Amino acid sequence: MKALSLYAVNDFRLVDLPVPEPKGEEILLKVGACGICGSDIPRVYKLGTRVNPVVLGHEFAGEVVAVGDKKDKDLVGRKAAVFPLIPCKKCDSCEIGNYNQCQNYGYLGSRNNGGFAQYCLIPSRWHLVLANDDANLEHLAITEPACVAQHAIRKGRVTAGQTVVVLGAGPIGILIARWAKLFGASQVVLTEINEEKEAFAKERGLTVINSLKEDAKQIIDHLTNGRGADVVIEGTGSSGGINDALQIVRYGGNVVWMGNPSNDTTIKLQNHSTLLRKELNMYGIWNSAYSNTPINEWKYTVEMIQNGKLKVDDLITHTAGIQDMLKLFDQIHDHEITICKAMYSAKLDKE
């Protein structure tokens, strides 16, 4: 099979690997689609991975083609999204079902071989969220970022009638905005500094403030009669985003820290004082929730994608077969193209 394997920083290769053979609880998935996450770009060109070489890709879906144990034979032919986190199931967090807080986890696509390959070995059926037979695998591959977006909404305690502001209008920012509407928010506003991303989100009917050109706090105050946003979800991981969030949120409001920092971040002195005076509720999030209690965000997301209530198809801007993925990575890294969601699509593989 063909696969994209990272050997070291800036050493990303299209290689031939043997198709894995599932043993025991393992499942063999024929990958149908795998999205490029924003974290994959720095992983390839700047940060690397803990394990080398490793096949990247954690936003993926496919069809089961083989199983290691005959008790799982009913899975063959089924389509599924893949929960990529491999919990130890021994630590305190795992014991209570908080698998995203596991202290000794594996991860398909960074610590274990992932979805940028024609086939991927899945640890067990537990990682599969089964979909309808007619499911579109490219849409299903957006399950992982859609789950992160849903997790941010739940952590922020978004309820009907609230004003929600999302900092960053990338794919997860747009998905957060759509979830917020589904959760009943009365006003949803995104902020963005990239004009192409701003235009892309506006074309999809969203309210977007260009925070380089406009005073986001002034606009939010106007929209809320001076009260401020009930919930702010910070998705940029930047100092500017962090400081804007503290200014925009209302007194006693909720701030969700979601964006991964790519550089050192700082909070201005006046905003440090602001977060104290406002007595803010602040939540960090990591990944998404897979436990059935209180709700399995993955199963719910797949259900919402399949019934059309969570729209995802219009976020896919670029696709490529496995043989063209290295070029697509370079184009994104070198800013030759602006994407929303780019992905590997097995439909485009050459014979």
What does this structure look like?
With 351 residues, the chain is of the alpha/beta class. The protein has 2 domains: 2-142 and 312-348, Medium-chain alcohol dehydrogenases, catalytic domain (Quinone Oxidoreductase, Chain A, domain 1), CATH 3.90.180.10; 148-284, NAD(P)-binding Rossmann-like Domain (Rossmann fold, 3-Layer(aba) Sandwich), CATH 3.40.50.720. The protein contains 11 helices and 18 strands. The protein has helices at residues 40-47, 92-95, 137-140, 143-155, 171-182, 195-203, 216-223, 239-248, 269-277, 297-306, 325-333, and strands spanning 2-8, 11-16, 27-35, 54-55, 59-67, 79-82, 85-86, 106-107, 119-122, 128-130, 163-167, 187-192, 207-210, 229-234, 249-257, 281-284, 316-320, 341-345. The strands form 4 sheets. Strands 3, 5, 6, 9, 10, 17 and 18 form a 7-stranded mixed beta sheet that branches. A 6-stranded parallel beta sheet has the order 13-12-11-14-15-16, sandwiched between helices. The protein has a 3-stranded antiparallel beta sheet with strand order 2-1-4, with no helix packed on it. 47% of the residues are buried.
User: Biggest sheet, in brief?
Assistant: 7 strands, mixed
* Highest CATH level, the class of the largest domain: Alpha Beta
Overall spatial form:
globular
What name does the CATH topology of the largest domain carry? Quinone Oxidoreductase, Chain A, domain 1
Give the CATH superfamily of the largest domain: Medium-chain alcohol dehydrogenases, catalytic domain
What series of H and E elements makes up the topology?
EEEHEEEEHEEEHHEHEHEHEHEHEHEHE
